[in-house]
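We include the entry.

. . .
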Amino acid sequence: MTSKNNKLTFKKSFAILILVFTKNFNVLAQTTQNINVLFVNEVGNDLAQVAVDVALNYIRKNPSLGLSVELLSVEGNRTDSKGLLESLCSKYSEALNTNRMPHVILDTTLTGVASETVKSISVALGIPTVSTSFGQEGDIRQWRSLSPEKGNYLLQIMPPTDMIPEVIRSIIIYMNITNAAILYDDSFVMDHKYKALLQNIPTRHVITSIGNDKDRGEQIEKLRNLDINNFFILGSFPSIRKVLESAKREFFERNFAWHAITQFQGELSSNIENATIMLLRPVSDSKSKDRLGVIRTTYNMKQEPQTSSVFYFDIALRTFLAIKNILQVGAWPPNMKYLTCDEYDGSNTPNHTIDLKSAFIEVTEPATYGPLEFPKGKTSFNGHSYMKFDMDISAVTIRGGASVSTKTLGKWEAGLDNPLRIANEGDMKNLTADIVYRVYTVVQEPFIFRDPSAPKGFKGYCIDLLDEIAKIVKFDYEIKAVEDGKFGNMNEKGEWNGIVRKLIDKQADIGLGSMSVMAERETVIDFTVPYYDLVGISIMMQLPSTPSSLFKFLTVLETNVWLCILAAYFFTSFLMWIFDRYSPYSYQNNREKYKNDDEKREFNIKECLWFCMTSLTPQGGGEAPKNLSGRLVAATWWLFGFIIIASYTANLAAFLTVSRLDTPVESLDDLSKQYKILYAPLNGSSAMTYFQRMADIESRFYEIWKEMSLNDSLTPVERSKLAVWDYPVSDKYTKMWQAMQEAGLPNSLDEAVERIRNSTSASGFAFLGDATDIRYKVLTNCDLQMVGEEFSRKPYAIAVQQGSPLKDQFNNAILMLLNKRQLEKLKEQWWKNDDIQSKCEKPDDQSDGISIQNIGGVFIVIFVGIGMACITLVFEFWYYKYRKNIKIVDVMEANDENSRVKNSNLKIPNLKQEFGNLGEIKNDSGQNVLKTRTLNSETNNFKSRF
């Protein structure tokens, strides 16, 4: 009985267990949702395939999710749109025929026609789709204009590989980078980034894939020639290492910056000597590290890069769960219409009200690497949804091929226009590429001087100008003199030399100096606005050296004229003495007649000489002779003196005028019409080009006229119209160019100056060049002069590469300096206040009068006359004291003296008559004294006896 009861109890218990299990199984079956997914992948995107497989495995191992997924896979080629379309339609039709209507399309295509093909099918047939294709809003052409209903079930989430390049935009904005080269390998897709990555940022940039091993070095060199010195490398560590090792050593100097951006984990190493590279790598969210470890170890999802593989896993899982939630709440349309590819006619797209977007956002499954970011408000879901993660920014220093240090700089949170979060701005600035432009110039004073003590090795007007521009535009520069010393000219083959060649070959960024703006140069390079006024060609010659002479006033008359004047002077003086001595009407022969006259002048030989001399002066000769014959001689001498003085004055004025106007060449026409003075411009200069071109034009015009004149088809009337007496085309420049070639063109300005100085009066040399150069040479050299007016005037400007952005930047800076009158100050400094300006004496033809060197002889005449007068005074004093000592004696002494005279047996007849009367006067004591009388001229022979 007991055994029977036990068997009954066991049966009841087993039945209860079966009932409970069945009930639980039914409940479980009711909560598990079966969904059909059409999975479209792209060839080569193995990460997505593995991630979806891991997601399916994750669902199977976690039955609590209540989800069962049946996957229909299609794989297409990025470039084969037709093949992918046929595969999709075939798989889709198969699913419909087997009653496995797909709830959603999981699209992991990247870009290109594969992505657009999937989008076109999904939007046309109205199939809910979750896509991870690349692109921001507007990049997906088939989904650009979705209706709100379609926007709820056609979703796109940007993958991490599409978000990482956005850090380049943030770096460029933060560091104010003006140029960039972006190199990427096949781990990144940049086709859609060409337009949008740096949109609305004033940065010249080139986006290109990394070249192969053979062409990679040349590729970097070409990018450098495009005036790019900021390089961004997007790729794996091997790709980054290859690019760094392909660059030249000078590309790692201070004017270059290298940024390595990768989505892989690892350390940067490269076989380069010395460089500091900015490295950016993704890091997972701290809250997701545990889950990431579980997924990688438990489900063996270890594919690299982690960001992409985990992203595809999270998107696939979230998509499955979102469809499950819609099915569970009954939001899925019960009689959803599915249209086949063949049934679609372009206008019969089904209208669905499936809100996949809300269900997708509300999934609570934790993130594996980083949370998904969804837009809020009215912002479009597509093109603004992505996975959030951080990029670690560090500076890696490489020495001798090994990484020696890594310094953390900050972080960047993945997003659109998210700024950098920098911990140390000083360290960040050290990684900035200094803007260092390559400047080539021609040494030409005062625009450019060589100066080893200067910061750049050069100084001058242009250096000061460039420094002022650098303060505004913010750049540094290195300057070199061009090897051939030429600004740039084109030969017969169309090849350029000098600075223009450097700019064309991208070896120079700036051409600096007194460079003229010429039409042919503007076809291959660009010029800024002129920084210097119109400058023409002028003539420089040796300044005529007028020899100075203290007795230049004596050179007005020739020596023989002076001798004749001197002879006439002595002859007239002697003749006047003779006439006065023998004329009975002269004063000395007729004293009684003229005894009452106030002026009693006896014209002895001394008085005659004095009279003739003073007659030539404004003072006059004084009392004229009394006799008529003497007066005729005096009148004749006065007339002669008047004519001589007038002739001397007129000739002196004419002499000075002629000396000031004695300039052999005053213009280019004067130079072309003479053959005595040789002339030439600098070889390869703009002046040479001017004369060569003008000569060529004259020659061409002459040939055209000659061909017209010799044309046999002309009628006599037409031929008569071409008959001329003078050639209608001048050969002025043709002859000048021929003369220049015969004279030989100097290769430098110093050589030209030397030829000018070595020229003689018989064969002079004139240099034709830029007026500013000539003006400065004249300013600093006293033996040179600038002749004539300027011609062929052209402005000076700074040259840059054709299409270079420096043109606009420099234009703005030059205009600012012009408004501040800074350019005028620089001109004052280098052309008027220059320290090396020569202190030249004014030549006579530029002074206000005769110089002391030429008129100083007059003062010497005065000093000589004064000296002679002093000597004469001494002689007179000596003569009077020792040879003619006249004494005043009393009568007794006079008697004694008379007795001595008598005893001397001298025969002196009638002393009373000869010597005149002796008168007596009394002195203060009452004694009589004897006063001697002045002797007459007739008794001069007796005076010596007393």
In short: The two ends are 214 Å apart (CA to CA). Confidence is low (pLDDT under 50) at residues 1-30, 844-848, 887-891, 897-946. The first helix runs from residue 2 to 31.
